[in-house]
Amino acid sequence: MRVLIADDEVLLREGLARLLEDVGFEIAGRCGDAGALLRMVEARRPEVAIVDIRMPPHEGDDGLVAAQEIRRRHPDIGVLVLSHHLESRYAMRLLEEAPERAGYLLKDRLSDVAVLADALRRIGEGECVIDPTIVSLLVARKRQRGPLDELTEREREVLALVAEGHSNNAIGQKLYLSRKTIEAHVSQIFMKLDLRDSHDRNRRVLAVLAFLRSG
Amino acid sequence: MTVAARAAPSPRWSVPSPLRQFVPVAVFAAVATATVAIVGKRPDVARAGDSAAALAGELAGGALLVAAALAAQAWRPRPRFTGPLAAAGIGWLLFEWNSPGAGPAFTAGLVLYALWPPLLAQAALRGPDERPLGRPAVALLIVAYATSLGMLGLVAAAVYDPLAQGCLDCPANHLLVASDADSWHELGQLGLVLSVIWTAAFAVLAYGRLTRLSPAGRRVAAPVLVPAAAALALFGAAALHGRERGFMSNDPTDRALWVGEMAALAIVAVGVVWERVRSRRARSALARLVVDLGASPPPGGLEGQLADVLGDRSLRLLHSLDAEPGWIDSEGHAAALPRDADRVATSVVAGGREVSVLVHRRGLLDDPGFAQEIASAARLAIEHERLHASRRAQLERLRLSRARLVATADAHRRELERDLHDGAQQRLLTLSIAIRLARRRLGRGDPALERELAAAESELGVSLAELRELAHGLFPMVLSNEGLGAALEVLAERTPRLVTGALPDGRFAAPVESAAYFVVSEALRREPNGDVAINARREGDRLVVEVRTEAELTGEATAIEDRVGALGGALVADLHHLRAELPCGS
Are residues A197 and A160 in the same domain? Predict the structure, then answer.
């Protein structure tokens, strides 16, 4: 798989490139700011671009803005945004226009090459990926009594995995349950939360995230 | 404390000397005595005739003008107004001297009998506030004097031979140059026609002047100008009546007009005194003001009270600051002195320093004596208000300095947050990637070393998480990027026990947003375990942040008070509830 790395910290960029090469990824290019990223994506057409949220010139959310631009211009190229921000806000901004082929991970996960590789592969296959820490914070959030209280412990587990972007198959594997069981859980959850189930897996993620964020 | 007009230097305040008063009184007494004698001798040619009441009225008309002039001069010296006015009062009697009964004064009577109208015109055009005459008025006065004193007086006298005109008992005309009855007749006709013209022109000029004056200026000028114009119009009517025969006489029409002139002169005198009555009235209002001020001067209410007393709704009272230039209003806000020509500033001076200033319509405080009285009457109140205002100004300054301190601290925290992200965090990440690479290179060769590297890597992970929390606690980027509502939402995501109610959508000034955020984060710190519910909304020009906690808030609210106070906001705090109101404009 060909990936492109955009991060303004050179050492980190190089380290990450070597790590990914080690596990069989092909590095299509490296760059350090949003402008160069957009040009390089245009020229080299990677499968996925790994983008640091914080990049020159403004050091704010330039990376996120560039990632949204890539999604708009090249729907077939995936983006994985790496962020220091634990908030679902930025993840939501990335996903709400087009949830497929997009991912949002905490930057801390970089060294965990297994997680990283898994995320890149899922994005390459058209899924969306949300950092589990962010989802668990959302699920744990204190709120006025509502439909979330009616979920069983298992259903909550399934809900969190749905929010992270996993398919029913993947959820089944993680929880050692059959696909049928997971499907039953999911439809239960959607009924209890009064959400419209969507056959598009990524739309489903978006609906769950929006529900969780609504507080 | 004294008052000085700033726009124009105040006239020198001098006590009128008894001698100066004595001169016009003595002259008037002498002229009046002579007039009584002349009228008594030949009542048949006198306007007063043989009626004692008419003579008394005639004398009273002159006396009133002289008395009014003296009084006006005593209140405030203004010789260019009072001089011609007193002279007109005396001249009014000289009309009777143009009589065979005048004896040695006959020649003077021939020359001066028609002098009072130009004198009155001059006094009225100057007005009690001694305005500059202006070109049209000067031209008019030249015509008036040339007609009355020149044509009807000196030139007519030069050709008037009493004997040749059939006045057998007339005293000698000392000014006679050549006896010429025809010329005398024509001169008289021409002079009277000119008198009609200039008195009519005076009425037009007076009307124009009154319409151009400011209301305050009109209040001063009109009581004199209007009756003077009436007196002169009656004189003009008498001139029109005598035009054919070429001289003024005492037929019934002449006498009727003369009574009217007398009444108009009396009204002029009243008009001069009226100014004084008006200022007396203002003074008694001032006295009431003093009583009111003694009772309870509301902060900032002094300006309104002075405006009422002086009848100028636009009046402003400004104060100086103790150690710096510039003016403040009663609220302590900086204020500029008005620059427009229609308004002037009258300063209140204490200890040789301009401490306060009254900004008012031009002409309102023309009498510096009155301004003086206002200053001393309201002295304590003005000083009280000034101290109050300068205290407010100082507090405001202090608040601004607090706000700057907070803003600086915020800026530093933001910078520190950025440094942590871009520096330490990136380094640690690079390090953890390096360790991971090393572990992969190592393979399964050395299990002990592999375990140690794995431990180091997980330590690094913990450090990164802690660093992220630290950076966010320093200053949440989302607050400056997306505003208060987003930042509180994010805070609620990170802090599950924080329950958010209404959150504002729009943006506020950075200090307001950061203070509101601080109220919430500080409440979370002071109530570390239980649920915390928050509500933030805009109410008019305030951002209201409310925090309710399950358990009691521990510790002091000082930190929040400081933050809210620095913005001039208000904080209500009890054990389970905080309510902060932050001014945020509208």
Answer: yes
What is residue B468's three-state secondary structure? helix
Task: Note whether A194 contacts B: Cβ–Cβ < 8 A.
Answer: no
Residues A84 and A149 in one domain: no
> Which residues in chain B are contacts of A111 at CB distance < 8 A?
429, 432-433, 435-436, 457, 460-461
Do β-strands A78-83 and A102-106 pair in parallel, antiparallel, or remain unpaired? Answer: parallel
Among A130, A165, A181, give the residue marking a domain's end: A130
Q: Tell me the ipTM for this assembly.
A: 0.86
pLDDT higher than 90, residue B217? no
Contact status of A214 with chain B (Cβ, < 8 Å): no
Q: Does domain B482-586 have CATH number 3.60.90.10?
A: no
Which residues does A85 contact at the CB level (< 8 Å), separation at least 6?
A53, B477, B478
Per-residue pLDDT of B425-453, as tens digits, reads 889 999 999 999 898 888 778 888 989 99
* A48 and A80 fall within a common domain: yes
Q: What is the DSSP string of chain A?
A: -EEEEE-S-HHHHHHHHHHHHHTT-EEEEEESSHHHHHHHHHHH--SEEEEESS-TTTSSSHHHHHHHHHHHH-TTSEEEEEES---HHHHHHHHHH--TTEEEEEGGGGG-HHHHHHHHHHHHTT-EEE-HHHHHHHHH---SS-GGGGS-HHHHHHHHHHHHT--HHHHHHHHT--HHHHHHHHHHHHHHTT----SSHHHHHHHHHHHHHT-
From the list B90, B117, B60, the residue with the least C-alpha distance to B262 is B60
Which residues on A lie below 8 Å from B496 (Cβ)? 137, 140-142
Find tokens 């008309």 and name the residue.
B61
B478 at A interface, C-beta within 8 A = yes
Closest residue by Cα to residue B560 from B527, B520, B531, B508: B520
* Angstrom distance (rounded) from CA B204 to CA A203: 90
pLDDT digits (tens, 9 = 90+) for B316-331: 888 888 777 888 888 8
Does A113 share its domain with A191? Answer: no
Assess contact for B548 and B533: CB atoms under 8 A: yes
SS (H, E, C) B218-249: HHHHHHHHHHHHHHHHHHHHHHHHCCCCCCCC
Residue ending a domain, among A81, A100, A130, is A130
**Of residues B471, B481, B500, nearest to A215 (C-beta):** B500
pTM given for the model: 0.57
Tell me which residue range forms the domain holding A185: 135-213
Chain A residues lying within 8 Å of B494, measured CB to CB: 86-87, 137
Count of structural domains, chain A:
2
Instruction: Return the domain boundaries, chain B.
Output: 18-248+256-267, 298-397, 482-586
Which of A9, A16, A87 lies nearest to residue B478, judging by beta carbons? A87
Is residue A93 domain-shared with residue A17, that is, in the same domain?
yes
Considering the domain architecture, whether residues A165 and A184 belong to the same structural domain is answered as yes
Average pLDDT, chain B: 85
Same domain (yes/no): A29, A65: yes
CATH code for position A26: 3.40.50.2300
* Same-domain check for residues A86 and A163: no
Instruction: Determine, for residues A86 and B500 on separate chains, whether the beta-carbon distance falls below 8 Å.
Output: no
